[in-house]
Amino acid sequence: MKQPALVFVYNADSGFVSTLLDIGHKIVSPQTYSCNLCAITHSTFSMRDEWKSFVAGLGVPVEFLHRDELAERHGLRDVQLPAIFLKAEDGLKPWISREEIDRCRSLDELKRLVEHKLKA
Known about the structure:
Blueprint: E1 5-10, H1 16-28, H2 36-41, H3 49-56, E2 62-66, H4 67-74, E3 83-88, E4 91-96, H5 98-103, H6 107-119
Parallel strand pairs: 1-2
Antiparallel strand pairs: 1-3, 3-4
C-alpha cells in the first residue's frame, strides 16, 4: 500500500487571473480574504519559506490544490474550504477542517495543528 499523502486545498481557484485577483484582495482587504490557509502560508506573492521547509520536513507526501483542481481531479464540490485531506488508495478523507484552519491565527499555530494531527 502506498503511503498516504496530505492534500492541502486552498479556497481559491488556480490560474493567472485568479492569482492576480487574490493578490489584489489580500492587499486591499485582507480581513475579508476567504482563505486562511493562503493568508497564513503565503506572503503577498509566494509561499513562505518557513512553510515550505516545514512541509518538506513532514515525512509524508504532500500535494497543494486549488478548489477548481479539487473538483476536476477528485470530483469534490461544495466542500468547506480551505481544508486538508488525507489521500489514500480509496480517495480523499477529511483530515483538518476549515473551522480548524480558521482558528489558526499564525503560521506557528497552523504548524502545531498539523504536527498534532500527524501524531494522533
